[in-house]
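Researcher: Go.
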Amino acid sequence: MAAYCKGCGVALQNERPKEIGYVPTLDAIYCQRCFKIRNYGDVLISMQQGIESNTTFQKINEIDAVVFWIVDLFAFESSLIPKLNQKLPGKDIIMVLTKRDLLPKTLTIEKISAFVQERLQEEQIVVKDILLSSDLLKNSDEAKESIDFINQAIDYYREDKDVVFMGVANVGKSTILNHLNQNKDLTTSCNPGTTLDLVPIKQDGYTIYDTPGIENHHSILTYLSPKDLKTVIPSKPIRPFVSQIYEDQSFAAAGLARLDIKVKGKASVVAYFSRSISVHRGKLEKADALWQNHLNEMLSPCLDTSLLTMHTYHSKMIDKKMDVVIHGIGWFCISGEIEEVSVKVHKGIYVTFRKAMI
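Model: Structure:
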């Protein structure tokens, strides 16, 4: 029997069927959990909130390696890891941006670079380089170019060291590594907590390590069911929901977030969410009644059954054009004559008000 699962890195065992790492036969190379995910999309044991990130950082720090930090450009705010340089002291960090293909083509490389560098400076995170990749879920020319570019970066920055791929859940670490190795050995899914331990992948003269997703208890993705995750995580390019408003309005992103806007004149609201997330617009004065009567019905998926359990964020306009980011699922871009903005989300979920990306 192999010592570790080839798909998620967990130690294999055949004595406790209800625990991670279980295999029914001693010649298995994938644990039963990985087997079910890979073949049927079923998650027998959810590890969305059960992987200790401090342990992962400790293991990374014990390896003489350059770190490739994978960041989801669409879910950028929830992909950020605060104080990353302090958590990986002395490590060279290369940022790899994924899922560029989900965003409008009008968002140029120059705009992306300026946005990312400004946000990194605000978060006091230092990286040696920023790489951009796209179309990794397809066997397209763009995907091949992205992988070639990452391969070249590994050769350039490695300097006789090993390589660690790390990031929060669902950013595309294992997908990139499967492309790099031209196989599908690593288990991939939309469920946080798919990779459970470091997975060493031998190369010619060095080792690449896949790692568990870093915990993010402030992202909606950490709390949704596997069924709802498939709904809220976009797999196709975003179709922005565009609205011009002239009076106080409320916007619902399914039952997961509510944006309330008080205006002084004309304003614009553009919603960037998965095509499967319905965006409902209505008068602000009627918003409470809508949520009380339709939460978990028309307004679904959701994490709450009442407005009373939701947390509210308030903000004034920080720029002429501002993004209101709901961590994990997308954002509203607002501009115009706006007096006040408030957002309701599940308690503990972060909302970021930032200068507009697009």
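Model: The two ends are 51 Å apart (CA to CA).
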